[in-house]
Design a protein that fits this description.
It is a single chain. This protein has 18 helices and twelve strands. By secondary structure, the protein is α/β, with parallel strands linked by helices. The protein has three domains: about 240 residues, P-loop containing nucleotide triphosphate hydrolases (Rossmann fold); about 120 residues, no CATH class; about 55 residues, no CATH class. A hairpin with a 2-residue loop joins strand 10 and strand 11. The radius of gyration is 23 Å and the shape is globular. Bound molecules: guanosine-5'-diphosphate. Guanosine-5'-diphosphate binds next to helix 2.
C-alpha cells in the first residue's frame, strides 16, 4: 500500500527521534508552525524561490497511530501563560501537504506539485532496543549486568544489585520477586538517565518510555546473574524471565521495527549534546555507544527485506544538537563540530553507509537573544531571556517574569577536547521560558537548514 501510494502521491515519511527531553516535541511543533505560517526560512530553497504555494495539515494516513498534538502544543507556547509543551511519551504522527511549483518545465506541465510529509515522532529509547533483536535473554542479562558494575552506574545500581543477590536463575519462578526485580531495575535505568548522570544507552526502551505498556506484564522482567550460555529448567525464575524477555522482543521490539521504523525514508535524530558534555566523560562515552546503536538501526533500515517489499529505505539522516540557543552564537559552530565528530565515529563503528548523513546545531524555538555584558572593563558575550520561575543564578531565584543575561560558558576550542568531558559543570544552563512572540512566527537557529536537508530535494 505504501508503495502504490508513493507512486500516485509523493510522500516523505520523516522520523523524528531522540532520547527523552532532547527536544522532539518542540522541534516538530516549531517545524510545522514555521511551514504552515511560511516563516522566513532563507535556506529552504523552494520557499526562498517562491515555489511553495500552499502548506496545510491533512488527516494522517495511519489510523493505528495517535495524532501528534500540534494544536495543543502550539497553544501552550503562546501568550502570557506560555510554557513548554509536554514531552514525547509514545509514537505519534502528523501529515502536512505542500503544494508547489515544480522547477522544471516538464514537471510544471505534468507533475503533481504536491508532496505529503508524514512526520512520525517516536522515543529514541525505542530505537536503542534494536540490539535486543539479536540477543538471547542470557546474553542481554550478562551484558546489562556487566555494564551496571562499571563506572558511575555501580552506585546507582546498588539497591537493584542487593535484590538481585537474593535471586537465582534456578529458584522456582515467583511473580512478586520478578515484579520487584523489574521495578528496581527500572528505577536504576531512570537514575542513569537523570540529569546529573545523563547516560544514554539504557535498553529495554519501554522501561524508560513505556508508552501504552505502563504496568503491562510484558515489562515484568529484569536481568539475572547468569552466564551468556546458561540453560534454565522449566518452572525456574530463569525460565520465567527468559519467556518474558522473548515476549518483549516479539510483541514490542519487532512490531516497532518492522511496522513503523522500516517504513521511514528520512530521519532526524535530536541529541542533547550539551547535557552529556556537562555530565562528564562517562556520559559522553555512553552517548557514543547510543549513537553507534542508532547508526546500527539505520543500517538495518537501509537493508531489510521490508525495504525491498515497500521500495523504501532511509536515504537521509540528520543529527541535530538541540537547544543551541543556550550557548552564545560564537559557540554554535563548535557545538556542530562536536556532534559531527561523534556522528563520524558512530558511522565508522557501525559500518554505516548508504544514506546521506549530516550534523548541525539548531534551536527549534529560540528562547534567548545575544547580549553583551561589561564587567570590570571586560566584555562578555552573554545570552538573555526570561528564566523559568524557580531557576537560580548566582544565588538569585527568578520569578518567571524578569529577564536576565547570563554567561553560559564557552565550549572547548576543539571537538576532540570537548569529548573528553568538560570540567565539572563548565557550562551554565538555565531553563528559559519560551519567547513571547509579537509576530506570527518563532525565532529559531538553523531550522531552515534542517528543513532543506530533510525535504528540499523532494520538491524538484
Ligand atoms: P522530547 O522529550 O524530546 O519531546 O523533548 P521536548 O521537545 O519536550 O523538550 C524538552 C525540553 O527541552 C523542553 O521542555 C524545553 O525546556 C527544552 N527545549 C527544547 N527545545 C528547545 C529550544 O530550542 N530552546 C530551548 N531554550 N529549550 C528547548
Amino acid at each position: 500500500m505504501d508503495f502504490t501510494a508513493g507512486i500516485t502521491e509523493p510522500t516523505v515519511r520523516l522520523g523524528v527521534t531522540g532520547l527523552s527531553r532532547s527536544g522532539k516535541t518542540v522541534f516538530i511543533t516549531a517545524l510545522v508552525h514555521a511551514l504552515l505560517k511560511q516563516s522566513r526560512l532563507p535556506v529552504f530553497e523552494a520557499q526562498a524561490e517562491g515555489r511553495v504555494r500552499r502548506i496545510y495539515l491533512e488527516p494522517q494516513p495511519n489510523d493505528d497511530l495517535p495524532r501528534f498534538a500540534y494544536e495543543q502544543n502550539l497553544a501552550k507556547l503562546m501568550g502570557d501563560n506560555r510554557h513548554w509543551p509536554d514531552s514525547t511519551r509514545q509514537i505519534s504522527q502528523l501529515r502536512l501537504t505542500l503544494e508547489y511549483v515544480p522547477e522544471s518545465f516538464v514537471a510544471r506541465n505534468f507533475g503533481s506539485g504536491r508532496l505529503h510529509i508524514d512526520i512520525v515522532d517516536y522515543p529514541g529509547e525505542w530505537l536503542l532496543d534494536l540490539p535486543l533483536l539479536s540477543q538471547t535473554y542470557q546474553q542481554w542479562s550478562a551484558a546489562t549486568l556487566a555494564g551496571s558494575r562499571s563506572g558511575p552506574r555501580t552506585a546507582l545500581a546498588k539497591i537493584w544489585h542487593d535484590h538481585l543477590a537474593i535471586l537465582s536463575a534456578e529458584m522456582p519462578a515467583e511473580e512478586l520477586s520478578a515484579m520487584k526485580a523489574a521495578e528496581l531495575f527500572s528505577t536504576y535505568l531512570r537514575a542513569c538517565r537523570s540529569q546529573q548522570t545523563a547516560l544514554s544507552s539504557l535498553p529495554p526502551g519501554r522501561f524508560l518510555m513505556p508508552g501504552d505498556l505502563e504496568g503491562s506484564p510484558l515489562l515484568a522482567f529484569a536481568p539475572l546473574d547468569v552466564t551468556p550460555n546458561q540453560e534454565f529448567n522449566s518452572g525456574s525464575m530463569g525460565a520465567l524471565m527468559e519467556r518474558r524477555y522473548n515476549s518483549y522482543v516479539a510483541h514490542v521490539v519487532k512490531p516497532f521495527f518492522y511496522g513503523h521504523f522500516a517504513r521511514l525514508n528520512r530521519q532526524i535524530v535530536l541529541v542533547d549534546v550539551m547535557s552529556a558534555l556537562n555530565a562528564g566523560e562517562a556520559a559522553v562515552n555512553d552517548l557514543r555507544m547510543a549513537l553507534a546503536d542508532v547508526m546500527g538501526a539505520f543500517r538495518m533500515g537501509a537493508n531489510t527485506l521490508t525495504t525491498h517489499l515497500f521500495g523504501r529505505r532511509i536515504d537521509k539522516v540528520l543529527f541535530a544538537a538541540t537547544k543551541a540557543d543556550l550557548l552564545n552564537q560564537n559557540d554554535h559552530d563548535k557545538l556542530e563540530a562536536i556532534l559531527r565528530l561523534l556522528v563520524q565515529e558512530a558511522s565508522a563503528k557501525a559500518e554505516f553507509s548508504g544514506a546521506k548523513v549530516d550534523a548541525l546545531a539548531l534551536s527549534a524555538i529560540r528562547a534567548t537573544r545575544e547580549a553583551t555584558v561589561t564587567q570590570k572593563g571586560q566584555e562578555f558575550s552573554c545570552i538573555a531571556g526570561i528564566p523559568e520561575a524557580g531557576e537560580v543564578i548566582s544565588g538569585q531565584t527568578f520569578d518567571g517574569e524578569k529577564e536576565a543575561a547570563i554567561f553560559p560558558g564557552d565550549l572547548p576550542l576543539t571537538p576532540a577536547l570537548a569529548l573528553k568531558g568538560l570540567q565539572q559543570s563548565a557550562l551554565h544552563f538555565v531553563k528559559f521560558r519560551p519567547p513571547l512572540i509579537s509576530g506570527e512566527t518563532f525565532p529559531h537557529i538553523r531550522l531552515d537548514r534542517a528543513i532543506e536537508f530533510l525535504i528540499g530535494d523532494s520538491l524538484p
